[in-house]
Amino acid sequence: MRGHTTRGKTRRGRLAALDRYLIGREAPLLTRAPKDAAVVDVGFGARPWTTLELAAALREAGCDAPVLGVEIDPLRVEQARRCMGDAPPGVTLREGGFTWWQGSEEARLVRAMNILRQYPPEACAEAHAALGARLIPGGLVLEGTCAPRGEVLVTHLLRREEGGLRREALLFMNDFSQGFAPIMFRDRLPQDLRREALPGGALEALFARWAASWEATRAGAATAAEAFARSAEALAQREPGVAPDPALWGMGALLWRWG
Description:
By secondary structure, the protein is an alpha/beta fold. The chain has two domains: 159 residues, Rossmann fold, CATH 3.40.50; 59 residues, no CATH class. 30% of the residues lie in helices and 23% in strands. It has eight helices and eight strands, in the order H-H-E-H-E-H-E-E-H-E-E-E-H-H-H-E. The protein has an eight-stranded mixed β-sheet with strand order 3-2-1-4-5-6-7-8, sandwiched between helices. Helix 3 links the parallel strand 1 and strand 2. Helix 1 runs parallel beside helix 3 and helix 6 crosses helix 7. It starts with 15 loop residues before the first helix and ends with a strand.
């Protein structure tokens, strides 16, 4: 599955919060052998800012894995290469899609944000399989959607295990620049899960419990960030998939684990 050209909208800092999450939570994956297993940013869009910012964050954290940015539109790739003057070391940009690799290349992490939103839900499973086809054991696919400035984000964490990809968790993130309420995440769900937030869907109950937790705790919160953390703590007491993790909540993030 190669894919097709999407809108390509991008801006600086749009995925900075996700970069920080990866550095903080996936450091063992990002730094372990094999050293030539890449970090791949699929569909960087009209400009390569997300790829370059991810590479800069990795280098600052001591990760020297190769970083590959791929974009299916060859004109965008040509334009992006003209923005590489201050690129961190080890960054490559090239034309590509969901099947991003060449030859025997492998990846430790593949990120594909704001792409499948423009595909039908039934295409997502095939796209996920293609994105993760060359992951090393324990490698990770992140696929999801964020708001235009990155203020609200939801992404799949799909882990490579023996036998294929496993839906490990959903990651919810908010920078609180627009305040906070759990309903804000509904419009940023990955494309294959949007229907699951409707009545009868698998995520309806999660959002209902989160909304109830937020309503019960927000009166004592001085800021949106504190309201988020309080609601997450209350939700973790009611929802087995949410592990108590105050450090994560302090980042404006919540993990809900499948099953």
